[in-house]
Specification:
The protein is an alpha/beta fold. The protein has 2 domains: 243 residues, Spore Coat Polysaccharide Biosynthesis Protein SpsA, Chain A (Alpha-Beta Complex); 70 residues. The chain has an 8-stranded mixed β-sheet, with helices on both faces. Helix 9 packs antiparallel against helix 10. The longest helix has 34 residues. The chain starts with 7 loop residues before the first strand and ends with a helix. It is a multi-pass membrane protein. Keywords: Glycosyltransferase, Membrane, Transferase, Transmembrane, Transmembrane helix. It is found in: Membrane. One of its GO terms (cellular component) is plasma membrane. This is Dolichol-phosphate mannosyltransferase.
């Protein structure tokens, strides 16, 4: 018997979330069952090394709407999120993290607003970050200020990856040539009618964060270099500033020589060398980030590889683009069984 097309797909990227699975399933299923319409939950196992795969297999036996997409290796949160969103079948696609800091109960309000107001995008916006450390709040505020300056005011402040997308928005994402888009920037850039639903951010239900400082810094660099050429212009201005400072120092040196008051001048020389060296290294680093992105694009490697999809059917490769991470033709029952062990 063919199941009806889901009205809602909920995409949940997961990496080593064994401890939070029971509570996540309990809260998420209560919300979705309450919608009284067909749905699917697409759990994307991003190469977990704990009991996440076994836990998902156990949940599938009792929860027929649960669908498991297993990636061959850990490809990162954004890659897992993109893989799930592009393979979701629902008329509306909601993405949410597994840690329950974003409440599943807000999904019903997102769906209501999208339908009532004809919105293609509804962002979950954090009304309160008191559960975060002061450092986390400070860095998050700086990130969103920077993104709004680079991309525009259409980037909602305090909105992460908890959002609802219409089928039209998902199809627009599928048309983009980028292999690993940063959705929190690309989605606002698409320009679809959007709204917001605010919520109180909760403590992580179980386990530990998968976004330490190093990954947050990496996300910031990825966001900037993938969406703006402003850093290259900053490098140009820094170079011009360095040239101006050197010009001033040359004039000072010539005047001092003409006045006969020249000294060894090691402090000014020392400062000038340090300044010029720092500017050059910074500019080289900025150029390197962009060269690395060009190199990655030229390689043409996909951002992820799908090992198995428990909901695979004739439409499973609908998101396939040349060179993307769609499953190989050899993926079959053996790999499917392996994913459920």
């Amino acid at each position: 018997m063919t199941r009806p097309e889901p009205a809602v797909s909920v995409v949940v990227p997961m990496f080593n979330e064994e401890s939070v699975l029971p509570l996540l399933a309990q809260r998420l299923r209560a919300v979705l069952d309450g919608l009284d319409e067909p749905y699917e939950v697409l759990a994307v196992d991003d190469g977990s090394t704990d009991g996440t795969a076994a836990g998902l297999a156990g949940l599938r036996a009792r929860w027929p709407q649960l669908r498991v997409l297993r990636l061959r290796r850990n490809s990162g949160h954004q890659a897992a999120l993109v893989a799930g969103v592009l393979r979701a079948r629902g008329r509306y696609v909601v993405s949410i993290d597994a840690d329950l800091q974003d409440p599943p109960e807000a999904i019903a309000e997102m769906l209501r607003r999208a339908r009532a107001e004809g919105l293609d995008v509804v962002y979950g916006v954090r009304a309160d970050r008191s559960s975060d450390t002061r450092f986390k709040r400070w860095t998050a505020a700086g990130y969103y200020r920077l993104m709004r300056r680079l991309v525009g005011k259409q980037v909602p402040a305090q909105a992460g990856d908890f959002r609802l997308l219409s089928r039209a928005a998902v199809e627009a994402l599928r048309e983009l040539p980028e292999r690993s888009p940063v959705l929190r920037l690309v989605v606002p850039w698409l320009g679809f009618p959007s709204g917001e639903v605010s919520y109180e951010r909760e403590e992580r239900a179980a386990g530990r964060t998968k976004y330490p400082l190093s990954r947050m810094a990496g996300l910031a660099v990825e966001s900037v270099t993938s969406f703006s050429a402003v850093p290259l212009r900053v490098a140009t201005w820094l170079g011009l500033a360095g040239v101006a400072v050197c010009g001033v120092l040359v004039v000072v040196a010539v005047v001092a020589w003409l006045a006969g008051s020249t000294v060894t001048g090691w402090p000014s020389l020392y400062v000038a060398i340090l300044f010029l060296g720092a500017v050059q290294l910074l500019c080289l680093g900025l150029l390197g980030e962009y060269v690395a992105r060009v190199y990655t694009a030229v390689q043409g490697r996909p951002a992820y590889f799908v090992a198995s999809d428990t909901g695979a059917d004739g439409d499973a490769g609908a998101d396939r683009r040349p060179g993307d991470g769609a499953p190989a033709a050899s993926d079959g029952p053996a790999e499917l069984a392996d994913s459920l062990r």
